[in-house]
Design a protein that fits this description.
The structure is a single chain. By secondary structure, the chain is an alpha+beta fold. It folds into two domains: 214 residues, Jelly Rolls, CATH 2.60.120; 115 residues, Jelly Rolls (Sandwich). Helices cover 16% and strands 27% of the residues. The strands form four sheets. Strands 1-2-8-4-5 form a five-stranded antiparallel β-sheet, with no helix packed on it. A four-stranded mixed β-sheet has the order 7-6-3-9, with no helix packed on it. The protein has a four-stranded antiparallel β-sheet with strand order 10-16-12-13, with no helix packed on it.
Length: 374
């Protein structure tokens, strides 16, 4: 019994969680206050939930789509206006995907590389979106992955592709990620009928636990501590200053057909951050508030994200958004939950025009008046 591979893998997972406790959830990763550490434990629990939910059981011969993040399972930059699914794939096989857009304003399928055995993706290996595959009047579609090339509705499977992510973006008055009326129908199956897999064994259970451990490690201890990681061009390390929005290329877990801009905010207890800009010509766009662990703030009860439909525009078509710790009684409030530090992340999907620079100004909370009135 003591020589079981599954027991060995389980104890290694416990050792990993102990190491995360002693290293990741402390000063080495910049967590100093009790509140910071508690938030870190919460983030680790969400990551562990994601690992167990989508990676412990895995079968590339008979895959199925599982929702990646939810209001109670957040990591790697979730989004109040989107629903995401994923499935494991084998680049040596071919698959048929059937689905329905479900009213989404943007739908895409992205191949991820480097995610085998639970690892964090290293880069994107291919993408197809609703501009390049046919959709029926009722929203239904069919896309083939791999196999012989086809003229349309086909995405090649390069040798390094081992997972597929689907993105379904909405621009509604309510947040799509917590809207129970939104249903995305998705099905994936191998093109060739394959026999059932063997029943669970000591080796297969151990492999599942190893995937869970790799998933958790890759999103904690394998991430460089703050200040030591190389940031992409769309990320600013200067508080309250936003870089130009740019496309991420093949940056892992990003949408290659989007443009992003992100910066940290820092605010005192009686300060607010005014954000001025103009939504560009694009399929959809939004801005979200994240904590340091790339988790959205609580969009089920607070206004922590704004899309174009939710934004009240000025007379000239621009906007002014207000990040504040309490309700300033003006339009376009983004609730910081009272957090003095966090991240502001902008998404612009399929941009076709110029994305004007975003302007940010720290002001005293009591100065929020005039043109910002509701």
């Amino acid at each position: 019994m003591s020589s079981l591979e599954s027991r060995k893998a389980f104890n290694e997972l416990l050792d990993l969680l102990q190491e995360i406790d002693s290293r990741y959830l402390g000063p080495e990763w910049g967590l100093g206050t009790d509140e910071d550490v508690a938030g870190g434990f919460r983030a680790v629990m969400h990551i562990l939930q994601g690992a167990l939910f989508s990676h412990f059981e895995e079968d590339t011969n008979h895959p199925s789509f599982l929702r990646i993040v939810s209001p109670s399972r957040k990591f790697t930059g979730d989004n109040a206006d989107a629903v995401y699914y994923e499935a494991p794939i084998d680049p040596n096989l071919a698959y048929r995907i059937r689905g329905n857009t479900g009213g989404a304003i943007y739908t895409s399928l992205t191949l991820e590389a480097g995610t085998q055995a639970g690892g964090l993706g290293t880069h994107t290996a291919g993408v197809i979106n609703d501009e390049t595959f046919e959709i029926a009047d009722d929203g239904s579609f069919e896309v083939i992955l791999g196999g012989a090339p086809r003229e349309q509705n086909w995405l090649a499977l390069p040798p390094d592709a081992n997972r597929i992510t689907t993105r379904h973006y909405f621009e509604n008055e309510t947040y799509a990620a917590c809207d129970p009326t939104i249903t995305i129908q998705l099905q994936i199956e191998a093109m060739d009928a394959l026999p059932p897999g063997p029943p669970p064994s000591d080796a297969s259970v151990a492999a599942g636990i190893d995937r869970v451990a790799t998933f958790v490690r890759s999103r904690t201890l394998d991430m460089p501590p703050p200040g030591e990681r190389e940031q992409p061009a769309f990320v600013s390390t200067v508080p309250n200053q936003f870089p130009p929005a740019v496309k991420p290329g093949d940056f892992a877990l990003a949408a290659a057909d989007a443009a992003y801009s992100m910066a940290p905010y820092v605010l005192g207890p009686d300060q607010a951050l005014i954000l001025r800009g103009r939504w560009p010509e694009c399929r959809c766009a939004n801005v979200s508030l994240w904590n340091r662990h790339m988790q959205t703030y609580d969009f089920t009860t607070r206004p922590v994200s704004l899309n174009r439909k939710q934004t009240r525009l000025d007379a000239d078509g621009g906007f002014q958004l207000v990040l504040a710790h309490r309700d300033p009684q003006v339009a376009n409030w983004l609730d910081t939950e009272g957090r003095p530090f966090g991240m502001v992340f902008w998404r612009f999907m399929l941009p076709s025009g110029e994305i004007q620079p975003l302007e940010a100004e720290v002001v005293a909370f009591d100065e929020i008046t005039g043109s910002l009135q509701k």
